[in-house]
Amino acid sequence: MVIYLCCLSTFLLSAQKINHLASFRNIEGERYFRFNYDNDFFTATDENYTQGYNFELVAPALRKNPLNFILIKANQQNTRYGVALEHIGFTPNEYDLPEIQFGDRPFAAAIMLRSFAISKNTVKQIRFHSALSLGLIGPGAFGKEMQTEIHEITGNKTPLGWRNQIQNDVVLNYNFGIEKQLLNLNDIIGFQIQSNLEIGTLFTNISVGSNIIIGKFQNLFTSKAQHSTFQIYVYAKPSVSLIGYDATLQGGLINRDNAYTISAGDVERLTFQYDFGLVLQTKTLYFEYTRSRISPEFQSGPSAKWGGFRVGFTF
Question: Do residues 18 and 306 lie in contact, with contact meaning Cβ atoms separated by under 8 Å?
């Protein structure tokens, strides 16, 4: 019931695909739980990626997950395993109209269960993450029911366009990312480059970029003992992505019976995204506020921006 209410509450606002595996979001410890939440309410907009949330758990017991064999790791000693439940939703700007909004984004929602691994090679100062996501895009992801109920409770306009949403199809996605530290100045300034590959039925793309962190932080690319229990820092992460497929725009790969999709020719194949934020950590608690902006993802679409927060704790 608590999880359902948390999920429901995300539609009070509006958001983009959640990246909970980046190095600047690292939580030290063998066990932790984190709630990741994105929404474009924080940037005073209400279209495109309308919300996203993720419940994330890392624990030693998850080493026994049978799906771990498919995950890429640096080595077994420096690897942590986790699972996550993630939901994302997308709407056009005029979500209260029942007609198809031609030239705008189609309605879409997806829900996924994710197995992931995070590992590092401290000699080469490289960090890996890999994840396998299994789930569903379409009405079975209950995007319509969640948004409609919340809008009824809050007295907002009723979303009437969900009948035109992307139809049910399978989500099977694999993600692999690598980060290399190029610079660390006394754990005050850190600079990393990264690359990420996403392949599957929901998203297929490859991205490259960098990130810089400034403040007081623990260097997770070293094997030296860490003594600081308090961290506060800001980060910035620009990246460029080459897009192969996006089911939230084009529909699923198997079920092509959709009322409206964006054609392959209208999908923008090159997108630029910029993320920045503030992180505060103690020995047991994690807090973050983040902002993001992405260039248009289809030819007639606008750029999109959103904000979010993350709250976590070790145990």
Answer: no
- 34 contacts 20 by C-beta, under 8 angstroms: yes
Nearest to 86 by CA among 196, 175, 210: 175
Average pLDDT over residues 195-220: 96
Residue 137 φ/ψ, nearest 5 degrees: -110, 140
> Among 38-42, 186-190, 236-240, which stretch is predicted with the lowest mean pLDDT?
38-42
Of the candidates 26, 15, 154, the residue with the CA atom closest to the CA atom of residue 90: 15
Closest of 247, 245, 213 to residue 231, by C-alpha: 213
Would you state the pLDDT for residue 46?
67
Give the Cα separation of 216 and 262 in Å (integer): 44
Numbers of helices and strands, H then E, in the chain? 3, 12
Residue 24 CB-density burial (10 A; 0-12 exposed, 13-18 middle, 19+ buried) = buried
Place of tokens 């694999």: 174
CATH 3.30.300.30 fits 2-314, yes or no: no
Confidence at 233, pLDDT banded by 50, 70, 90: very high
% helix, strand, coil for the chain, step of 5: 15, 50, 35
Q: Could you write out the DSSP letters of every residue in 138-162?
A: SGGG-HHHHHHHHHHHHTPPPP-GG
Task: Please state whether the predicted TM-score (pTM) of the whole model is above 0.85.
Answer: yes
pLDDT value, residue 151:
72
CA 199 to the chain's CA centroid: 15
45 and 15 in contact (C-beta within 8 Å)?
Answer: no
pLDDT confidence of residue 227 = 61
Q: Which two tokens stand for residue 273?
A: 């995204």
Question: How would DSSP label each residue in 44-110?
Answer: T--SEEEEEEEEEEE-GGGGG-GGGGGS--S-STTEEEEEEEEEEEEE-S-TT-SS--TTSPPPEEE
pLDDT at 247 over 70: yes
